Amino acid sequence: MDQAEIHLSRLNYHHLQYFRAVAHEGNLTRAAQHLRVAQSALSTQIRQLEAQLGQALFERQGRRLVLTEAGRIALAYADTIAAAGRELVATLQEGRRHHRQVLRIGAVATLSRNFQRRFVAPILGNADVELVLHSGSLGELLSRLGAHNLDIVLSNRRVQEDAGTAWRCRRIARQQVSLIGPPRGGRPFRFPDDLVDTPLVLPSRDSDMRSGFDVLCEQFGVIPSIAAEVDDMAMLRLLARDSNYVSLVPAVVVLDELRSGLLEEYVAVPNLFEEFYAITVRRQYQHPLLRSLLERAEALVPDAISLADAEVAEHDVQHVVGIDDADQPGERLSGGQQVRRRDRRR
């Protein structure tokens, strides 16, 4: 019997149960009350588990016990073991089996849904994966990433790496940005001259896409006519669709409207792209699914996501998920996989 098997033989299911209770409560006293054991006995059980694993699982912050990185990893395994125990009972009693890895992805609320679907497409249909999608502000998502509550954050803004942060930010994709509006009846759009008297809907000024567009206008010596500025990609899509304004937006965002003829792509703005970044935190143990997802995405960086690429990706995802709307997420996959979206926007 090797050393790993010796340690495994000593792993106590009750130790893991007590550890899970403290981890989820964040408080030793409440966990002891919940388990109906003495606080001193519970503390002893936790110390024994830490000694066996050779890692501190908690650190104290005020009156709360906060998981260390090793503690987060241990909790993921402990939750899996607890689920396996329930699965064992269900398998023997009911003849069914159910087990999934959980991958938690945070996506900035303004991020294109088409890109999100493209990113997760390789694991869609995998019945052994539960995908949890969180939507929020970049600051909020980075906070959750730093606390190890997320495995990765997807953003259309770069995060600076420095000695004070543990972020790892890499560009993984980009897509061409176009001027899109109602059909012009065959009349050509003269870029950049027509920008002067054409009402435009633009992203807000803190957007990298907007900054690039402003630089282009300065280079061409034109002052565009701005009708509206919005910081939400879904709202850009709605305004492009429901107003007579011309929107600065990646063509893939309004894919359905372009195909139906409701909208028309006037011009692909030269050298202007929306770029996508994957943000992770430096960890000793990375989620096993992330490497393949990031390697696949990074292989596409030299080339922009084209309209044709988006149509292929959309067909692949719809085949698995059954999505009808180009900007709405699926909830249940036909292969048995669950996708849970937690979105703070309404």
Q: Kindly give the count of domains.
A: 3
Terminal CA distance: 56 Å
Shape: elongated
Mean pLDDT: 79
Helix/strand-derived class?
A: alpha/beta
Placed side by side, the strands forming the largest sheet appear as: 8-7-9-6-10-5-3-4-11
Tally the beta strands.
Answer: 11
- Rg is 25 Å
What is the string of helix and strand elements? HHHHEEHEHEHEEEHEHEHEHHE
Which spans have pLDDT < 50 for at least 5 consecutive residues?
A: 1-6, 301-339, 341-346
Number of helical segments with 4 or more residues:
12
CATH H-tier superfamily of the largest domain: Periplasmic binding protein-like II
Looking at CATH, which topology of the largest domain would you report? D-Maltodextrin-Binding Protein, domain 2
Q: What is the CATH-assigned architecture of the largest domain?
A: 3-Layer(aba) Sandwich
- In helices, the fraction of residues equals 40-55%
Major sheet attributes: 9 strands, mixed
Strand content: 15-25%
Description:
The protein is of the alpha/beta class and 346 residues long. It folds into three domains: 3-94, Arc Repressor Mutant, subunit A (Orthogonal Bundle), CATH 1.10.10; 101-172 and 276-343, D-Maltodextrin-Binding Protein, domain 2, CATH 3.40.190.10; 175-275, D-Maltodextrin-Binding Protein, domain 2. Helix content is 40%, strand content 23%. It has twelve helices and eleven strands. A nine-stranded mixed beta sheet has the order 8-7-9-6-10-5-3-4-11. It has a two-stranded antiparallel ribbon with strand order 1-2.
